[in-house]
Specification:
142 residues, eight-stranded antiparallel beta barrel, 2 helices, 9 strands
Length: 142
């Protein structure tokens, strides 16, 4: 695995989370849409959303109802920054994120599978809590 190998745009195929207690969830549904992009200069961006996102019915981006804005936030994840490699791990150093808690931090993803046109990234989340889980995101080049 090298930085040159991962460079490019990857379309999301699936995102599932398996909790330590056996629960299985799909944070953006089973029709997730989006991409992750790794540029040759070490920059990255990731945008994921539900495939069934609803348009706002009243108002616009800034003056829609609180319920519709909350639903829009809950149905999309976006962040960007730089990336580095260490062994079988790619670290995303987050500069901007729709989820403010990630900004300024690092999101580590273990590379579970890497082939010319397929990538699987895995992360352990909330280790040591009742919500501990493994997130697995499958991507295809494109």
């Amino acid at each position: 695995m090298s930085e040159q190998g991962i460079t490019g745009r990857w379309q999301i195929v699936a995102w599932e989370q398996v909790y330590d207690d056996g629960r299985r969830t799909y944070p953006m549904g089973q029709q997730v849409q989006g991409f992750i992009q790794y540029d040759p200069d070490g920059r990255m961006m990731c945008m994921l959303c539900r495939g069934d996102r609803q348009n706002f019915t009243i108002g616009g981006q800034w003056n829609a109802s609180e319920e519709e804005r909350a639903a829009a936030y809950s149905s999309m994840l976006a962040y960007a920054g730089t990336y580095t490699f260490g062994g079988d791990t790619v670290s995303h150093h987050v500069e901007l994120s729709a989820f403010p808690n990630w900004q300024g931090g690092t999101q580590k993803r273990r590379i579970e599978t890497f082939e010319a046109d397929r990538l699987a990234l895995v992360a352990r989340l909330e280790e040591g809590t009742s919500e501990a889980r493994t997130a697995r995101l499958i991507w295809k080049r494109g």
